Amino acid sequence: MNPGKPSIAEIVRDEIMRRPFVRECMRLGIVNYSALARILVADAGLDASIPAVKMALIRLGEELRDERSLLEERVRSVVGNSIIELQSDVSVITVSKEHLVRAVKDLLEIMSKSRFFQLTQARDTFTIVIASEDEAKVLGLVKEVVGILRDQTALTVISPEDIIETPGVVVFMTSALAANGINITQVISCHKDTIFVIDREEAPRAYQVLERIIRGMR
Predict the structure, then answer these.
(1) Which domains does the chain show, CATH number per domain?
(2) Which of 30, 54, 74, 143 is deepest in the core (most CB within 10 A)?
(3) Distance (Å, rounded) from C-alpha 42 to C-alpha 53?
């Protein structure tokens, strides 16, 4: 074997890692490896026989299933030990970064007294999620408002510290909400807290979905 040339197993792994949907099917064990090997040889132009590629796929599938089992156990532990808090009647205000920076001191004063306040920074804007009764105070500080969403609810999932080093927890929860047709206005992560901002009308159903999966993993 040429020491500078990647092995068939390495090439197959790279090809599968570029195909997330195929990778997930392999993790679930629902792939026809013979058919997949033929596709890879044809589409990726692999310089290998179909049986050799199939064998590499089978071995990779076993590794992925083992990884999935370990990851699922970690996600189950984090989600099962989480709790939910709900804050109704919040507004989402997006403002120009330039204008808000000038009012930071006054904004901090509002933050210290508001029952709910979250601030996130993008490249050109800040987004403030704030208790609706304090919305006017923020609007009085800034001249350029990019957008406002009212009648929102913030669902805060408070998890153990393991969430920081456990991949897949947030996507698990967002997938559960999406599968139930619930739109997420904002997702905010802050240390152990994951905050989902959702339209008020959908909030009760969103709470039920999250509570159900948390209880189901205990």
Answers:
(1) 8-79 (no CATH), 82-216 (3.30.2130.10)
(2) 54
(3) 11
SS (H, E, C) the chain: CCCCCCCHHHHHHHHHHCCHHHHHHHHHCCCCHHHHHHHHHHHCCCCCCHHHHHHHHHHHHHHHHHHHHHHHHHHHHHHHCCEEEEEEEEEEEEEEHHHHHCCHHHHHHHHHHCCCEEEEECCCEEEEEEEHHHHHHHHCCCCCEEEEEEEEEEEEEECCHHHHHCCCHHHHHHHHHHHCCCCCCEEEEECCEEEEEEECCCHHHHHHHHHHHHHHCC
Return d(Cα 109, Cα 54) in angstroms, integer. 63
Segment 23-29 shows an average pLDDT of: 86
Interhelix angle 203-216/50-80, nearest 10 degrees: 100
Q: Can you tell me the distance from the alpha carbon of 68 to that of 198, in angstroms, rounded to the nearest whole number? A: 30
What number is the average pLDDT over the span 143-164?
94
d(C-alpha 190, C-alpha 192), whole Å? 6
pTM, two decimals, is 0.75
Does residue 148 contact residue 93 with C-beta atoms inside 8 Å? Answer: yes
The pLDDT assigned to 52 comes to 93
